[in-house]
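Pasting as-is:
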Amino acid sequence: ISTDENVPMLMTSLMKAAHNLVFPCSRCEENEQIFCDIGLSALRLLTSLTHENNVAGFQVCQQYRFLNPSMSSDSYIRGVDLIFILLHQLASERRQNKNEECNSESEALIKARAQHTYDSIIFCLKALTNSLETTSSLNMCKSVVNLDLLNRSSSSDKKPENALAWLSSWVVDQTLPFR
């Protein structure tokens, strides 16, 4: 994360920790569960900080420079985009995990991962909702409307999808069991 002055380090650090530590949980071993728990704690704290907090909502909507050693240049991304991308990755992972068969040895681990993924999705949705309810939500709305997500579920279909269209479709899909 950028170390420039005037950058709110707590919010950017929480968003980056959540993104880096929550999503890999679906592939981590039991002894690496601590990293996933740290990521989930970062999401919990981010959700709490954005609740009825205009300053935090504004900071989530700002664009930040993330230092990326694997690329020749730094990456710039809005905090809300980072949360949205994490939500998309988690939802895609959850869909894939539902299709996996489990044996008796790994059943408990798979259930724990599924619960962790579910909790992370809920915290992402709540953080986005909290940010949207702040006075700085106009910046967030513009950011979400212009955000495109890559479809990682199919290697042949790399066509970007609008984040808002994906979220609408995903939420409707979540209600199918209740129809």
